[in-house]
């Protein structure tokens, strides 16, 4: 079996050109690419991960940070990343950070130390200063909008998502609307809350503090919301919820406690998780899997195009309302 | 800020002893461990992943293979692995293999090339020969039973799981029982089918080929099962299903087509996924998260105890019946 040097010799090109073809580098002359692929096939060449490493200086590993591993939203981003990564012979180093900036920094260190070729941060706790600092070492993409000068992002428009959900509920006649989000101070949460308060203000409703539920991450957290709703002085007639798993917990517990959905409590979720369809939850949907796919594409381009490192690019996904039975 | 060498000097121990403490190596004298931790705290020492690497020869990365990333069963195994890994300062390299033995081999190569300290295979397509070959290079744990001589496993007793489900359905009076599983020829599937056929034989029922559904991996696959059930000559009155996501698809589509669950079709799922509770699916439950936790513990012990490499150990998790509304 031929090695990469023999393939290069037979094709009359450099080892790094063969390597670029093997790694689906976007910028190789198409005719040359076809010639090289033909020789690779004739020689029955099987790529050895170490050979790639030596000839390109790449690790063929990208890092992915996420706060917790077993969460449908993050799993579906990773699904999108992984499907693309396999195509391009990349492996993923998945790092659970528990939203701890120190843990995030240890992953950013991997980029600095060239243990990974690039990094996708599904969510982040690090400051913009820290991100800018590390962006000089290699490409970083965040899956939420960020205020840095040099870190690119692919993100869902969470402001628009909550806006659509609020307008829809208001059109249905709701005025006492509560919200339910994950991390209190994340970039995404700030955008969601801005839409929430703007919309309520537009109909002269002053939201009660009792209508806001933050740090909701699990189905159980959703269930707990219902218990708390029962103790409010003026119970909301509708809830807008950042994630369909939390919405599922709310609906389930409401049913157990005899609160009718949507008659007593309307619920709008905000993602495209399968649980939304299974439980017929009205949702403002964006594809987190697609976001992961785009994030990998953007990262891959930057890994192989040195000039793009540190040049900010932003891609925003727009949400769509899917009306079902919970409103 | 002190480095690892200064910590070692202050504690009067070797660098590798400090490193063992930092990495929660199980076999360090407790008194010495306490002394070293005190100095680490006093010196405000922050671990640098590269320093660990240099002083111990470890990468502090473990590999995890799984066929596809966005699948609740595998996500929940990884949740268990990741929670333990974070405690022990390990990072995960998660590799999606699409059940392709070549892709698995490229991950096994990472073990051979010391790019990872150990490997957990959530499912596997490689032969026992291949696994035995690579087990010499470092610890491997499979999350399904295996017939190798040297690869350890932590696994759910899938034979027992299907046995419990079948006995329960038979006690309810069902005789025409179908099954629904994932990969046709996986080790787990073989055990499930053995229990299925044994139990039907015990009541002199010859199962129809139309009652068996294999390669079911998504909710949509579950929905498709119902369409096919409608075309059978003798429709089963009950289904035993290897995973609650597939069961959810079946229940959902049955409801859409006017087939009453459980009256026209009883459904038993076989895992502990939240969707089971949300849709009130009767299930034979085992904790895949716990399996992941045990797999990491077993692997970690083997990474740090050279004598255990290649010595087979097996840990089996027993399932429990949880009766809900679909039977």
TrEMBL record, chains A, B:
Domain spans labelled HTH lacI-type: 2-56
Pfam families in UniProt: LacI, Peripla_BP_3
CDD domains associated with the record: HTH_LacI (cd01392), PBP1_CcpB-like (cd06286)
Keyword DNA-binding: yes
Keywords: DNA-binding, Transcription, Transcription regulation
InterPro entries: HTH_LacI, LacI/GalR-like_sensor, Lambda_DNA-bd_dom_sf, Peripla_BP_I
Signal peptide (residue range): none
PANTHER family linked: CATABOLITE CONTROL PROTEIN B (PTHR30146:SF105), LACI-RELATED TRANSCRIPTIONAL REPRESSOR (PTHR30146)
UniProt name for this protein: LacI family transcriptional regulator
Organism per entry: Brevibacillus porteri
């Amino acid at each position: 079996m031929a090695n990469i040097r023999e393939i290069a010799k037979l094709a009359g090109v450099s080892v790094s050109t063969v390597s670029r073809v093997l790694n689906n580098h976007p910028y190789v002359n198409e005719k040359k690419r076809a010639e090289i692929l033909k020789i690779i096939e004739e020689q029955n060449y099987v790529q050895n991960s170490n050979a790639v490493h030596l000839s390109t200086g790449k690790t063929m590993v990208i890092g992915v940070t996420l706060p917790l591993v077993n969460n449908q939203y993050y799993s579906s981003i990773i699904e999108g990343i992984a499907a693309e990564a396999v195509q391009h012979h990349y492996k993923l180093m998945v790092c659970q950070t528990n939203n701890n900036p120190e843990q995030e920094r240890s992953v950013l260190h991997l980029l600095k130390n060239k243990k990974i070729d690039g990094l996708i941060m599904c969510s982040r706790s690090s400051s913009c200063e820290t991100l800018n600092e590390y962006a000089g070492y290699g490409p970083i993409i965040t899956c939420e909008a960020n205020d840095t000068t040099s870190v690119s992002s692919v993100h869902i428009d969470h402001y628009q998502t909550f806006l659509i959900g609020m307008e829809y509920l208001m059109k249905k006649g709701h005025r006492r609307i509560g919200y339910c989000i994950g991390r209190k101070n994340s970039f995404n949460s700030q955008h969601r809350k801005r839409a929430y308060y703007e919309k309520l203000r537009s109909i002269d409703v002053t939201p009660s503090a009792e209508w806001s539920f933050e740090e909701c991450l699990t189905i159980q957290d959703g269930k707990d919301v219902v218990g708390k709703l029962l103790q409010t002085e003026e119970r909301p007639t509708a809830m807008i919820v950042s994630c369909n798993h939390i919405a599922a917990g709310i609906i389930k517990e409401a049913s157990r406690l005899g609160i009718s959905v949507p008659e007593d409590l309307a619920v709008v979720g905000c993602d495209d998780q399968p649980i939304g369809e299974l439980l017929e939850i009205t949702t403002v949907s964006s594809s987190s899997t697609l976001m992961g796919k785009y994030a990998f594409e953007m990262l891959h381009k930057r890994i192989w195009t040195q000039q793009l490192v540190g040049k900010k690019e932003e891609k925003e996904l727009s949400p769509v309302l899917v009306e079902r039975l919970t409103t």
